[in-house]
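Ticket reopened. Same input as before:
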Amino acid sequence: MNPCDAAFKREVRLRCYDALEAEGFTRYRKEGADWPFGGEFYCWVGLNSGLYKEYVQINPFVGVHAASLEQFWISLIKDEYPKKYDRSHATYAIHLGKIAPNEEIFRFTRETDVASEAKRLARLYLEVGLPFAKSIASYDALIPLLMKRSESLGAAPEKLAACLYLAGRVDEARFFVESFMEKHRDYIAKFAVPFLALLARSEGVV
Amino acid sequence: MHCHRNSEIRRAAAKTLKGFCLTYLPHHFPADLSDFFDEMAGALENHNLKRLEMIGFRGCAKSTMASLAPVLWAALEHPDKYPFIIMLADTTAQATINMAAVQHELRDDDLILRDYGRLKYRRIDDPQQLNIAQGQAGENSTEELLGNSVAGTQVTFITSTGARTRIDFVTTIDESFAVVEAKTGNAQLTSGQAQLQADVNAGNPVTPVGQNAAAAGFDVGVPTLLDSFTINRPF
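Engineering reply: fixed in the latest deploy. New output:
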């Protein structure tokens, strides 16, 4: 039997996106699907893929993409970071196994019925992933989650600050950013300086 | 005050393995305890024990006592004595079930969470060996479960020196990210992986890049702190 290769991995991924689309997810690009909740929030889908000689493994991630929040924090650092807004980036995501621990893993060999397994994956997203995403599709729900992740950096602090700001909790946003500056100045300064300036401007201080 | 006192009473009861079982794991012992339960618990809580053979009738809680209760008791009551615990089973399916049961209690048991807090632990599986065992078991094998699989795979990072390196597995433990690199035989880390390990150990952020990193929920291009770097050597 031929070993699995990049072409097979791509074929598997495409079939997974086909299946998601068939279940009602929006195929916003060839290898990208989500579920708009209307307005700011989307159910975010991430198909992390491992290619091995014997199989391709799809590791499903689910979360939310908060469009305004992403655009907001990226707009503040655009002069410092080579970063653009991207719908395919999660605001917060977890591995689907955390909420569906008893589901079998998604491993595709050359002998796997790819369409059938892709459908199982899409159904899992629909039945388990989507309700989870909906449950955290608000600023108030995201704040504690991003707070827990903020010490790992990885844009979680910026998103948390943006989340607090957009939720109208401006004083908390300022306090968080100023406190974070004391611990991780090198990391957060690119965002913190324009963010705090924005707060000052909006309060008419400057 | 009342809750605090209850917690103290429960923790005092948990000093013995039997007390721990009856306090925190009663749902695993729905029937009356066997006549030799005390003897079994007493033997298993002996820290000097090297090997123990247990023979008992079906349903007398041998498996629960051998694969679940002592693991939780050792991890929660005696973490200093048992900084790591190796669980063994004779099939992949059994190993998966045993591990899932332990993780379920640590994550979801209200009393355990209340009295011990959320235990920070690192689970190290051996995917390569699991694959081999699964292949040998052929069509009769029980599939691995999603909740037991390592989260993301084949994620690329840029290290503090600018070296670009791909690691085998990435996972999250209590919202922190950890990486596991599998090496067999005498294989060593590549220079990029070694730099990544040095960065992780030094607390330096590294930058995830690429589609596979984004698909695992990383914000690509943004420096990220990884909590640990583990080399898994199955054989």
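Chain B touches chain A through 41 residues (CB under 8 Å). The radius of gyration of chain B is 21 Å. Please confirm and we'll close it.
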